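Recap from last week: sequence in, structure out.
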Amino acid sequence: MSGSTPSAAESLLVVEDSRIQAKILADKLQQSGYDVRTAENGQIGLEMIRQKRPTLVISDIEMPVMTGYELCSAVKNDAELRSIPFILLSTLSDAQDIIKGLHCGADNYVTKPYDPEFLISRVRSLLETPLADDEEEQQLDVTLGGTRYTVKAGRQQVLNLLVSTFENAVEKNHELIRSNEELTAAKEQLTRWNQELEALNEQLETANTRMSRDLQAAARIQQSLLPTSVPENPKVRFAWKYLPCDELAGDFLNLFALDEKHIAVYVADVSGHGVGPSLLSVTIGRLLTRQVSASSVLVQAREGQDQPRVVPPAEVAEELNRRFPMEEQNGLYFTMAYGLLDLDELVFRFVSAGHEPVVHVPRDGAPQLIEGIGMAIGWVDDFEYDDQQIQLQPGDRLYLYSDGVPEGMDENLNQFTNKQMLEMIELGKSQSLDDSVSLLLKSVERWCHKNGPKDDISILGLEIADD
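Predicted C-alpha coordinates:
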Protein backbone atom coordinates (compact mmCIF):
# COMPACT_ATOMS: atom_id res chain seq x y z
CA MET A 1 0.00 0.00 0.00
CA SER A 2 1.43 3.40 -0.94
CA GLY A 3 1.90 6.06 1.72
CA SER A 4 0.92 8.86 -0.62
CA THR A 5 -1.62 7.43 -3.04
CA PRO A 6 -4.66 5.68 -1.51
CA SER A 7 -5.92 2.55 -3.24
CA ALA A 8 -9.42 2.40 -4.61
CA ALA A 9 -10.39 0.03 -1.76
CA GLU A 10 -9.57 2.53 1.00
CA SER A 11 -12.93 3.87 2.16
CA LEU A 12 -13.24 5.95 5.31
CA LEU A 13 -16.16 6.61 7.62
CA VAL A 14 -16.35 9.98 9.41
CA VAL A 15 -18.69 10.00 12.42
CA GLU A 16 -19.33 13.61 13.45
CA ASP A 17 -22.51 15.26 14.78
CA SER A 18 -21.50 18.68 13.40
CA ARG A 19 -22.53 18.69 9.76
CA ILE A 20 -20.20 21.56 8.94
CA GLN A 21 -17.14 19.89 10.50
CA ALA A 22 -18.07 16.55 8.92
CA LYS A 23 -18.38 18.23 5.50
CA ILE A 24 -15.03 20.04 5.83
CA LEU A 25 -13.20 16.86 6.93
CA ALA A 26 -14.87 14.70 4.26
CA ASP A 27 -13.88 17.21 1.54
CA LYS A 28 -10.25 17.21 2.70
CA LEU A 29 -10.11 13.41 2.75
CA GLN A 30 -11.76 13.14 -0.66
CA GLN A 31 -9.21 15.62 -2.06
CA SER A 32 -6.52 13.23 -0.78
CA GLY A 33 -8.05 10.37 -2.78
CA TYR A 34 -10.14 8.55 -0.19
CA ASP A 35 -13.73 7.37 -0.58
CA VAL A 36 -15.58 8.97 2.35
CA ARG A 37 -18.93 8.40 4.00
CA THR A 38 -20.32 10.32 6.99
CA ALA A 39 -22.61 9.53 9.92
CA GLU A 40 -24.14 12.04 12.30
CA ASN A 41 -23.87 9.91 15.50
CA GLY A 42 -22.34 6.69 16.82
CA GLN A 43 -25.42 4.54 16.40
CA ILE A 44 -25.82 5.41 12.72
CA GLY A 45 -22.08 4.99 12.29
CA LEU A 46 -22.16 1.47 13.77
CA GLU A 47 -24.98 0.48 11.41
CA MET A 48 -23.02 1.82 8.41
CA ILE A 49 -19.89 -0.08 9.56
CA ARG A 50 -21.82 -3.34 9.75
CA GLN A 51 -23.50 -2.73 6.38
CA LYS A 52 -20.24 -1.94 4.59
CA ARG A 53 -16.93 -2.41 6.34
CA PRO A 54 -14.74 0.72 6.04
CA THR A 55 -10.97 0.69 5.83
CA LEU A 56 -10.73 3.16 8.74
CA VAL A 57 -13.09 5.05 11.09
CA ILE A 58 -12.64 8.63 12.31
CA SER A 59 -15.04 9.54 15.12
CA ASP A 60 -15.75 12.49 17.35
CA ILE A 61 -16.14 11.62 21.04
CA GLU A 62 -18.95 13.88 22.27
CA MET A 63 -22.05 12.93 20.25
CA PRO A 64 -25.74 12.29 20.98
CA VAL A 65 -27.27 8.76 21.04
CA MET A 66 -23.88 6.99 21.12
CA THR A 67 -20.53 8.58 21.99
CA GLY A 68 -17.30 7.98 20.17
CA TYR A 69 -16.03 5.90 23.10
CA GLU A 70 -19.11 3.71 22.91
CA LEU A 71 -18.84 3.35 19.14
CA CYS A 72 -15.15 2.45 19.38
CA SER A 73 -15.86 -0.11 22.11
CA ALA A 74 -18.63 -1.70 20.02
CA VAL A 75 -16.31 -2.00 17.00
CA LYS A 76 -13.35 -3.36 18.98
CA ASN A 77 -15.50 -5.91 20.83
CA ASP A 78 -16.78 -7.32 17.54
CA ALA A 79 -14.44 -10.07 16.35
CA GLU A 80 -15.19 -9.29 12.70
CA LEU A 81 -14.63 -5.54 13.05
CA ARG A 82 -11.92 -5.20 15.69
CA SER A 83 -9.07 -4.90 13.17
CA ILE A 84 -10.56 -1.71 11.65
CA PRO A 85 -8.23 1.20 12.63
CA PHE A 86 -10.12 3.69 14.78
CA ILE A 87 -9.17 7.34 15.30
CA LEU A 88 -10.82 9.40 18.03
CA LEU A 89 -11.11 13.17 17.74
CA SER A 90 -10.69 14.59 21.22
CA THR A 91 -9.78 17.74 23.12
CA LEU A 92 -7.25 15.55 25.00
CA SER A 93 -7.77 17.68 28.08
CA ASP A 94 -5.98 15.28 30.48
CA ALA A 95 -4.37 11.85 30.78
CA GLN A 96 -7.71 10.17 31.42
CA ASP A 97 -8.57 10.66 27.74
CA ILE A 98 -5.66 8.40 26.76
CA ILE A 99 -6.70 5.73 29.28
CA LYS A 100 -10.33 5.92 28.09
CA GLY A 101 -9.07 5.51 24.55
CA LEU A 102 -7.07 2.45 25.46
CA HIS A 103 -10.00 1.16 27.48
CA CYS A 104 -12.37 1.33 24.50
CA GLY A 105 -9.70 0.13 22.06
CA ALA A 106 -8.88 3.28 20.05
CA ASP A 107 -5.82 3.15 17.81
CA ASN A 108 -5.12 6.83 17.55
CA TYR A 109 -5.96 10.23 19.00
CA VAL A 110 -6.05 13.52 17.11
CA THR A 111 -6.63 16.62 19.18
CA LYS A 112 -9.20 19.26 18.28
CA PRO A 113 -8.77 21.75 16.76
CA TYR A 114 -6.62 19.87 14.30
CA ASP A 115 -4.74 20.58 11.10
CA PRO A 116 -6.45 18.49 8.38
CA GLU A 117 -3.06 17.62 6.88
CA PHE A 118 -1.89 16.29 10.24
CA LEU A 119 -5.02 14.14 10.52
CA ILE A 120 -4.51 12.79 7.00
CA SER A 121 -0.91 11.87 7.91
CA ARG A 122 -2.28 9.89 10.89
CA VAL A 123 -4.72 8.10 8.57
CA ARG A 124 -1.90 7.14 6.22
CA SER A 125 0.29 5.96 9.11
CA LEU A 126 -2.42 3.71 10.51
CA LEU A 127 -3.21 2.23 7.13
CA GLU A 128 0.47 1.43 6.63
CA THR A 129 0.56 -0.53 9.92
CA PRO A 130 -2.67 -2.56 9.93
CA LEU A 131 -3.71 -4.58 12.97
CA ALA A 132 -3.76 -8.35 12.68
CA ASP A 133 -7.10 -10.01 13.33
CA ASP A 134 -5.45 -12.49 15.69
CA GLU A 135 -3.22 -10.03 17.55
CA GLU A 136 -2.81 -11.16 21.13
CA GLU A 137 -4.40 -8.84 23.70
CA GLN A 138 -3.14 -8.14 27.18
CA GLN A 139 -5.26 -7.03 30.12
CA LEU A 140 -4.05 -4.25 32.39
CA ASP A 141 -5.73 -2.64 35.37
CA VAL A 142 -5.02 1.07 35.65
CA THR A 143 -6.21 3.54 38.33
CA LEU A 144 -6.16 7.22 37.35
CA GLY A 145 -7.79 10.10 39.15
CA GLY A 146 -9.57 7.71 41.50
CA THR A 147 -11.12 5.74 38.62
CA ARG A 148 -10.14 2.14 37.88
CA TYR A 149 -9.84 1.18 34.20
CA THR A 150 -9.39 -2.26 32.66
CA VAL A 151 -7.45 -2.01 29.43
CA LYS A 152 -7.40 -4.79 26.85
CA ALA A 153 -5.16 -4.05 23.90
CA GLY A 154 -2.60 -5.61 21.65
CA ARG A 155 0.98 -4.40 21.47
CA GLN A 156 0.53 -2.74 18.05
CA GLN A 157 -2.63 -0.95 19.21
CA VAL A 158 -0.95 0.37 22.37
CA LEU A 159 2.07 1.43 20.33
CA ASN A 160 -0.13 3.25 17.77
CA LEU A 161 -2.00 5.08 20.51
CA LEU A 162 1.15 6.07 22.37
CA VAL A 163 2.80 7.24 19.15
CA SER A 164 -0.27 9.30 18.27
CA THR A 165 -0.25 10.79 21.76
CA PHE A 166 3.40 11.74 21.35
CA GLU A 167 2.81 13.17 17.89
CA ASN A 168 -0.14 15.15 19.20
CA ALA A 169 2.08 16.59 21.92
CA VAL A 170 4.75 17.46 19.35
CA GLU A 171 2.15 19.05 17.05
CA LYS A 172 0.69 21.08 19.91
CA ASN A 173 4.20 22.16 20.87
CA HIS A 174 4.81 23.28 17.29
CA GLU A 175 1.50 25.17 17.38
CA LEU A 176 2.55 26.78 20.64
CA ILE A 177 5.89 27.80 19.12
CA ARG A 178 4.11 29.22 16.07
CA SER A 179 1.65 31.04 18.32
CA ASN A 180 4.51 32.47 20.37
CA GLU A 181 6.30 33.57 17.20
CA GLU A 182 3.10 35.20 15.93
CA LEU A 183 2.56 36.80 19.34
CA THR A 184 6.12 38.13 19.34
CA ALA A 185 5.67 39.49 15.81
CA ALA A 186 2.34 41.04 16.81
CA LYS A 187 3.96 42.58 19.88
CA GLU A 188 6.75 44.04 17.77
CA GLN A 189 4.19 45.35 15.28
CA LEU A 190 2.14 46.83 18.12
CA THR A 191 5.28 48.50 19.47
CA ARG A 192 5.96 50.01 16.03
CA TRP A 193 2.35 51.15 15.75
CA ASN A 194 2.51 52.73 19.20
CA GLN A 195 5.69 54.56 18.22
CA GLU A 196 4.05 55.73 15.00
CA LEU A 197 0.94 56.74 16.95
CA GLU A 198 3.03 58.74 19.41
CA ALA A 199 4.74 60.49 16.50
CA LEU A 200 1.37 61.20 14.85
CA ASN A 201 -0.03 62.48 18.16
CA GLU A 202 2.94 64.82 18.50
CA GLN A 203 2.37 66.04 14.94
CA LEU A 204 -1.34 66.46 15.66
CA GLU A 205 -0.62 68.37 18.85
CA THR A 206 1.81 70.61 17.00
CA ALA A 207 -0.73 71.15 14.21
CA ASN A 208 -3.50 71.86 16.75
CA THR A 209 -1.27 74.35 18.56
CA ARG A 210 -0.40 76.05 15.29
CA MET A 211 -4.05 76.02 14.17
CA SER A 212 -5.19 77.43 17.49
CA ARG A 213 -2.59 80.17 17.22
CA ASP A 214 -3.64 80.90 13.64
CA LEU A 215 -7.32 80.97 14.61
CA GLN A 216 -6.58 83.40 17.43
CA ALA A 217 -4.65 85.59 15.01
CA ALA A 218 -7.53 85.43 12.50
CA ALA A 219 -10.00 86.28 15.26
CA ARG A 220 -7.91 89.31 16.20
CA ILE A 221 -7.91 90.41 12.57
CA GLN A 222 -11.69 90.08 12.51
CA GLN A 223 -11.96 92.11 15.69
CA SER A 224 -10.08 94.88 13.90
CA LEU A 225 -13.06 95.20 11.51
CA LEU A 226 -15.27 96.29 14.39
CA PRO A 227 -15.60 99.97 15.36
CA THR A 228 -12.60 101.19 17.29
CA SER A 229 -14.58 104.28 18.31
CA VAL A 230 -17.86 105.94 17.43
CA PRO A 231 -18.09 109.24 15.56
CA GLU A 232 -18.53 112.10 18.01
CA ASN A 233 -21.25 114.43 16.77
CA PRO A 234 -23.86 116.29 18.81
CA LYS A 235 -26.56 115.38 16.31
CA VAL A 236 -26.36 111.58 16.62
CA ARG A 237 -25.51 108.79 19.06
CA PHE A 238 -24.41 105.24 18.24
CA ALA A 239 -24.33 101.88 20.04
CA TRP A 240 -23.42 98.38 18.88
CA LYS A 241 -23.08 94.79 20.08
CA TYR A 242 -21.32 91.88 18.42
CA LEU A 243 -21.46 88.21 19.53
CA PRO A 244 -19.81 85.56 17.29
CA CYS A 245 -21.08 82.00 17.80
CA ASP A 246 -17.67 80.51 16.95
CA GLU A 247 -14.08 81.62 17.19
CA LEU A 248 -14.28 82.81 13.60
CA ALA A 249 -17.39 84.61 12.45
CA GLY A 250 -19.10 85.53 9.21
CA ASP A 251 -20.72 88.70 10.58
CA PHE A 252 -19.00 92.07 10.69
CA LEU A 253 -20.13 95.65 11.25
CA ASN A 254 -18.66 99.14 11.39
CA LEU A 255 -19.45 102.84 11.43
CA PHE A 256 -17.28 105.87 10.70
CA ALA A 257 -17.44 109.37 9.26
CA LEU A 258 -16.65 109.70 5.56
CA ASP A 259 -16.60 113.51 5.69
CA GLU A 260 -18.10 116.25 7.82
CA LYS A 261 -21.57 115.57 6.45
CA HIS A 262 -21.81 111.78 6.02
CA ILE A 263 -21.47 108.88 8.44
CA ALA A 264 -21.33 105.38 6.98
CA VAL A 265 -22.87 102.43 8.88
CA TYR A 266 -23.17 98.81 7.81
CA VAL A 267 -23.85 95.27 8.99
CA ALA A 268 -22.80 92.37 6.75
CA ASP A 269 -23.28 88.61 7.06
CA VAL A 270 -21.26 86.09 5.00
CA SER A 271 -22.98 82.74 4.43
CA GLY A 272 -21.70 79.79 6.46
CA HIS A 273 -19.25 79.56 9.33
CA GLY A 274 -15.57 78.85 9.77
CA VAL A 275 -12.37 79.80 8.00
CA GLY A 276 -13.75 80.41 4.49
CA PRO A 277 -16.50 82.87 5.45
CA SER A 278 -14.23 84.60 7.96
CA LEU A 279 -11.55 85.17 5.32
CA LEU A 280 -14.14 86.61 2.95
CA SER A 281 -15.48 88.87 5.70
CA VAL A 282 -11.96 90.20 6.37
CA THR A 283 -11.42 90.84 2.66
CA ILE A 284 -14.70 92.75 2.35
CA GLY A 285 -14.10 94.66 5.56
CA ARG A 286 -10.73 95.84 4.30
CA LEU A 287 -12.46 97.36 1.26
CA LEU A 288 -15.16 99.15 3.23
CA THR A 289 -12.99 101.93 4.65
CA ARG A 290 -12.94 105.71 4.53
CA GLN A 291 -9.54 105.75 2.84
CA VAL A 292 -9.34 107.05 -0.71
CA SER A 293 -7.37 104.73 -2.95
CA ALA A 294 -7.44 103.03 -6.34
CA SER A 295 -9.53 100.19 -4.88
CA SER A 296 -11.71 102.34 -2.64
CA VAL A 297 -15.39 101.46 -2.67
CA LEU A 298 -16.98 104.02 -0.33
CA VAL A 299 -15.21 107.21 -1.40
CA GLN A 300 -13.56 108.17 -4.69
CA ALA A 301 -11.12 110.88 -5.62
CA ARG A 302 -12.44 113.54 -8.00
CA GLU A 303 -10.13 115.10 -10.54
CA GLY A 304 -9.40 118.74 -9.76
CA GLN A 305 -11.27 118.71 -6.43
CA ASP A 306 -9.97 118.40 -2.91
CA GLN A 307 -13.04 116.66 -1.52
CA PRO A 308 -13.56 113.03 -2.58
CA ARG A 309 -16.90 111.83 -3.83
CA VAL A 310 -19.02 109.86 -1.36
CA VAL A 311 -20.35 106.86 -3.28
CA PRO A 312 -24.14 106.31 -2.98
CA PRO A 313 -25.13 103.04 -1.21
CA ALA A 314 -26.60 101.45 -4.36
CA GLU A 315 -23.32 101.97 -6.26
CA VAL A 316 -21.40 100.44 -3.33
CA ALA A 317 -23.55 97.30 -3.51
CA GLU A 318 -23.18 97.07 -7.30
CA GLU A 319 -19.37 97.35 -7.06
CA LEU A 320 -19.20 94.66 -4.36
CA ASN A 321 -21.50 92.43 -6.43
CA ARG A 322 -19.16 92.87 -9.38
CA ARG A 323 -16.04 92.04 -7.34
CA PHE A 324 -17.42 89.04 -5.41
CA PRO A 325 -19.45 86.79 -7.72
CA MET A 326 -20.54 83.66 -5.83
CA GLU A 327 -19.04 81.18 -8.33
CA GLU A 328 -15.57 82.66 -7.73
CA GLN A 329 -15.93 82.53 -3.91
CA ASN A 330 -16.49 78.76 -3.54
CA GLY A 331 -20.23 79.29 -3.39
CA LEU A 332 -20.05 81.95 -0.66
CA TYR A 333 -22.15 85.09 -0.77
CA PHE A 334 -23.08 87.77 1.74
CA THR A 335 -25.95 90.01 2.68
CA MET A 336 -25.47 93.59 3.74
CA ALA A 337 -27.31 96.65 4.95
CA TYR A 338 -25.18 99.70 4.12
CA GLY A 339 -26.31 103.24 4.75
CA LEU A 340 -25.22 106.88 4.79
CA LEU A 341 -26.52 109.24 7.42
CA ASP A 342 -26.70 112.81 6.08
CA LEU A 343 -26.16 114.96 9.16
CA ASP A 344 -27.43 118.12 7.48
CA GLU A 345 -30.71 116.72 6.16
CA LEU A 346 -31.12 113.91 8.75
CA VAL A 347 -31.80 111.50 5.90
CA PHE A 348 -30.65 107.89 6.06
CA ARG A 349 -30.01 106.59 2.55
CA PHE A 350 -29.33 102.86 2.48
CA VAL A 351 -29.21 99.76 0.32
CA SER A 352 -30.32 96.34 1.53
CA ALA A 353 -28.64 93.48 -0.34
CA GLY A 354 -30.70 90.49 0.74
CA HIS A 355 -30.34 91.61 4.37
CA GLU A 356 -32.73 91.78 7.30
CA PRO A 357 -35.13 94.78 7.34
CA VAL A 358 -33.97 98.02 8.95
CA VAL A 359 -35.98 98.94 12.06
CA HIS A 360 -37.11 102.57 12.24
CA VAL A 361 -38.34 103.72 15.66
CA PRO A 362 -40.04 107.13 15.49
CA ARG A 363 -39.78 109.11 18.70
CA ASP A 364 -43.52 108.98 19.30
CA GLY A 365 -44.38 105.86 17.29
CA ALA A 366 -44.06 102.09 17.24
CA PRO A 367 -41.03 100.35 15.68
CA GLN A 368 -41.42 99.71 11.95
CA LEU A 369 -39.69 97.19 9.67
CA ILE A 370 -38.34 98.78 6.46
CA GLU A 371 -37.94 95.86 4.05
CA GLY A 372 -35.02 95.84 1.62
CA ILE A 373 -35.44 95.30 -2.11
CA GLY A 374 -32.03 94.05 -3.27
CA MET A 375 -30.48 90.61 -3.89
CA ALA A 376 -27.63 89.17 -1.80
CA ILE A 377 -24.15 90.14 -2.99
CA GLY A 378 -22.80 87.56 -5.44
CA TRP A 379 -26.08 85.95 -6.45
CA VAL A 380 -26.80 87.67 -9.77
CA ASP A 381 -24.31 89.32 -12.10
CA ASP A 382 -24.92 92.98 -13.01
CA PHE A 383 -27.84 93.28 -10.58
CA GLU A 384 -29.04 96.90 -10.35
CA TYR A 385 -29.56 98.05 -6.77
CA ASP A 386 -31.72 100.98 -5.68
CA ASP A 387 -31.25 103.34 -2.78
CA GLN A 388 -33.94 103.61 -0.13
CA GLN A 389 -34.20 106.45 2.31
CA ILE A 390 -35.71 107.25 5.68
CA GLN A 391 -36.38 110.82 6.81
CA LEU A 392 -35.41 111.03 10.46
CA GLN A 393 -36.55 113.40 13.18
CA PRO A 394 -34.96 114.27 16.51
CA GLY A 395 -35.47 111.36 18.92
CA ASP A 396 -35.81 108.76 16.14
CA ARG A 397 -33.80 105.55 16.26
CA LEU A 398 -32.59 103.08 13.64
CA TYR A 399 -31.44 99.46 14.17
CA LEU A 400 -29.40 97.40 11.74
CA TYR A 401 -28.79 93.76 12.68
CA SER A 402 -27.93 90.31 11.32
CA ASP A 403 -30.30 87.35 11.01
CA GLY A 404 -28.84 85.88 14.22
CA VAL A 405 -31.34 88.10 16.10
CA PRO A 406 -34.77 87.09 14.70
CA GLU A 407 -33.61 83.55 13.85
CA GLY A 408 -32.12 82.73 17.26
CA MET A 409 -33.53 79.36 18.42
CA ASP A 410 -34.58 78.00 21.80
CA GLU A 411 -34.15 74.37 22.87
CA ASN A 412 -37.26 73.39 20.86
CA LEU A 413 -35.91 75.12 17.71
CA ASN A 414 -38.48 77.92 17.95
CA GLN A 415 -37.18 81.18 16.49
CA PHE A 416 -36.99 84.46 18.37
CA THR A 417 -38.88 86.09 15.45
CA ASN A 418 -39.25 89.69 14.28
CA LYS A 419 -42.25 90.10 16.56
CA GLN A 420 -40.29 89.53 19.76
CA MET A 421 -37.45 91.65 18.42
CA LEU A 422 -39.80 94.61 17.89
CA GLU A 423 -41.29 94.07 21.36
CA MET A 424 -37.83 94.28 22.94
CA ILE A 425 -36.99 97.39 20.90
CA GLU A 426 -40.28 98.96 22.00
CA LEU A 427 -39.48 98.03 25.61
CA GLY A 428 -36.08 99.71 25.29
CA LYS A 429 -37.46 103.06 24.06
CA SER A 430 -37.47 104.43 27.61
CA GLN A 431 -33.82 103.45 28.06
CA SER A 432 -30.66 104.90 26.59
CA LEU A 433 -29.67 103.70 23.13
CA ASP A 434 -26.78 101.68 24.56
CA ASP A 435 -29.05 100.01 27.13
CA SER A 436 -31.63 99.37 24.46
CA VAL A 437 -29.09 97.51 22.26
CA SER A 438 -27.85 95.55 25.29
CA LEU A 439 -31.44 94.60 26.18
CA LEU A 440 -32.03 93.21 22.70
CA LEU A 441 -28.83 91.15 22.79
CA LYS A 442 -29.56 89.76 26.26
CA SER A 443 -33.10 88.86 25.22
CA VAL A 444 -31.78 86.76 22.32
CA GLU A 445 -29.18 85.13 24.58
CA ARG A 446 -31.85 84.23 27.16
CA TRP A 447 -34.01 82.76 24.38
CA CYS A 448 -31.10 80.58 23.20
CA HIS A 449 -29.67 79.93 26.68
CA LYS A 450 -29.97 76.12 26.63
CA ASN A 451 -27.88 75.57 23.49
CA GLY A 452 -26.46 79.03 23.02
CA PRO A 453 -26.76 81.12 19.82
CA LYS A 454 -26.03 79.04 16.72
CA ASP A 455 -25.40 82.07 14.53
CA ASP A 456 -23.41 85.29 14.86
CA ILE A 457 -25.31 88.24 16.32
CA SER A 458 -24.63 91.81 15.20
CA ILE A 459 -26.66 94.83 16.31
CA LEU A 460 -25.96 98.46 15.41
CA GLY A 461 -28.19 101.30 16.57
CA LEU A 462 -28.25 105.04 16.00
CA GLU A 463 -30.35 107.79 17.55
CA ILE A 464 -30.93 111.35 16.37
CA ALA A 465 -30.36 113.70 19.28
CA ASP A 466 -33.21 115.90 20.55
CA ASP A 467 -33.10 119.54 19.56
